[in-house]
Write a structure and sequence with these properties.
The protein has helices spanning 29-37, 41-52, 59-69, 76-91, 99-108, 130-135, 142-145, 152-162, 176-185, and strands at 12-15, 112-117, 138-141, 169-173, 189-193, 208-211. It is an alpha/beta fold and 236 residues long. A 6-stranded parallel beta sheet has the order 3-2-1-4-5-6, sandwiched between helices.
């Protein structure tokens, strides 16, 4: 990174949550569900994307739905444990060390800051965790909006909420498929946060940069921007 401003027109930054701002479990909740049900991770992701990530649902209710759907009601107990543990983690998110200072620096410059996540409806906290309220102007949960990344509508919802056009928005996330390709298709600027130094080429998105941490992000954005909507003006 040269430290030169790359996104001169950006006025707001949207982040993915798990794996970007928040430390995930060694095995993600969807992966644990897949193991219990005896299906592949890809199958579990597709299953959750069709319903469980698009609506709010209690952990025990989702567990019974999944167990019954696979004809194995005896699995409701183990599934409930996994889903309730995920909800507790969501209520007390553990941030990566580079998150507080980076977001504070960006907020000090006038950037509006958001997060957007494909969260299971059973994991969405009833009240926004204090640590997220302090750092962000809004969090968009797929279970509340009804749409998941990389679908264009997921990004359009953020645009409408903050009143900014795509070229003034930057999305930062760790998923090439959901975050980078989704945001690029919506016309946003994009950054791939590669915390684990993955091998292989970056996707062919002209406005995408590969970051190894969030520490370099402020170096690539303007020193000051005009004010944008405050937290009270953005639907959480």
């Amino acid at each position: 990174m040269s430290g030169r401003v790359v996104w001169a027109g950006v006025r707001a930054v949207c982040f993915d949550l798990g794996g970007t701002l928040v430390r995930p479990e060694p095995v993600a909740t969807t992966g644990q569900v897949a193991e219990i049900l005896g299906i592949s991770l890809e199958e579990a992701r597709a299953l959750m994307g069709r319903g469980a990530k698009r609506r709010l649902v209690a952990p025990q209710d989702l567990a019974h739905e999944l167990a019954a759907g696979f004809g194995r009601p005896g699995l409701a107990g183990p599934l409930t444990e996994v889903l309730e543990r995920a909800r507790r983690r969501a209520q007390d998110p553990q941030l990566y060390p580079d998150v507080p200072d980076t977001l504070a620096a960006l907020r000090g410059r006038g950037f509006a800051l958001f997060a957007m996540t494909n969260a299971l409806g059973s994991s969405v906290p009833e009240q926004e965790p204090e640590v997220l309220r302090e750092l962000l102007d809004g969090v968009f949960y797929s279970a509340r909006t009804g749409t998941i990344k990389p679908e264009p509508e997921a990004f359009a919802i953020v645009e409408r909420a903050c009143g900014l056009s795509p070229e003034k928005l930057l999305h930062v996330g760790d998923s090439l498929a959901a975050d980078v390709r989704g945001a690029a298709s919506a016309g946003w600027h994009t950054a791939w946060l590669d915390r684990h130094h993955a091998t292989g080429p970056l996707v062919s998105a002209a406005r995408t940069l590969r970051l190894s941490s969030l520490n370099t992000l402020p170096l690539l954005l303007p020193a000051r921007v005009a004010a944008v909507p405050t937290a009270s003006e953005v639907a959480r």
